[in-house]
Amino acid sequence: MRFSGPVRACALLGLAALVSACAPLQTSGAASGVDETEGTLRVWLFSEVDQAPKERVVAAAVEEFEAAHDGVEVEVQYIPVETRAERFQGAFLDPASAPDVAEYGNTDLAGYVESAGLADLTEDLADWEPRADISDDVAATARVDGADYGVPWFLGVRALYYRTDVLGDLGLEVPRTLQEVVETGRAVREDDPRMLGVSAGGAYTYAMMPFVWAHGGDIAEPDGDSYTATIDSAEAKEGLELYGQILSDDVCPPQTCSEMRGDASVQNFVAGSAAMTIGGNFNLNAVRASDIADDAAVVPLPGTEPGSIAPAFAGGNNLGVLAGTQRRTLSVEFVKLLAGKEYQLRMYEAMGNLPVFTDVRAELAASDDEIAPFVETIDAGTRFVPVTPSWATVDAEGILPAMVQRLAAGDASVDQAADEAARALDDAFGRG
């Protein structure tokens, strides 16, 4: 896919960062037992860099909902994503000041459930017809221990951006495998040492994960009511070894790339300093607006075999109902409306947010080739981080970036770095 056409606003907040919440609170989370059908329905949504288009879509949904519910007023408050941890903690402790409905990041879910802050909507969604068009792997991003705590509202996945002019001038084909991604990047840098072959950082966990998953590895596996690390498996190490080759002098020098996260990795590409990068659909706007737009294209990140697609992390936000709401029925109905197909499509048109419904995405891919590689990636199957409150500890301690950075610096072999990370993960999971 080459970039052309109008710039589409794209502000998927919270996808590039993992959980930043503090340790889960131990609250009762008990529902009030009251289910009022009138009054004010309070809604929290995340603020955006440019939220005017989002506000217009939400306002339309609010108008429709209020027209269908006499005596009901919907009050929407936009909260900063950076302070969500404190805001939600306060809401869980004091239901009287809490919203009825809230947008939340899918990596935050497990901690919120442990805090008993979200309502179990499994029965409420059981007969909701649109749910059949949400694939199991996507539905799992709103699920803990088999129970649904909301509806996925939008998705964000990553694919392979590349420079058509750079590869074309060198007679290089678009990579068909992850190994070819590395080899192509090496060939580019050999020709021009001023350019990064692949811009992907040591702290860019979401770029590293597909390499592990594509080789059959994983971060951890369920073990009773917790997880056990598997990042030290032979398959995971094979993926880590290949990703580690990117962080080398002949592709992306460690002194430049070791500390980079996703934003910096993509920015190198946008600035014209890299031949390739692993970026999200939420980076499309920046690429389209850049000086390289006419020479940029994107394809699904390939897997280990030609024609395969590496599993991508399914980032995104969900809509859920707070456990202490006194308007549960109204809350569920509003979630179904705003998270339904019509308004997910409107949010895509306004913000670039990828819908979670397979049929809606298929229509978009058929009509918009700029988004097609990301839809293909989702349809090929996505993956998620371990669904446990312990993931906040894993993120806060930087266990996975530290593993990759030690590997890139030559301070540890793949075996040593993965084994150390596995021990740290098990400690975080309470297995140490």
UniProtKB/TrEMBL annotation:
Residues 1-21 form the signal peptide. It comes from the Bacteria. SUPFAM superfamilies: Periplasmic binding protein-like II. PROSITE patterns: PROKAR_LIPOPROTEIN. Keywords: Signal, Transport. Belongs to the bacterial solute-binding protein 1 family. This is Extracellular solute-binding protein. The lineage of its organism: Bacteria, Bacillati, Actinomycetota, Actinomycetes, Streptosporangiales.
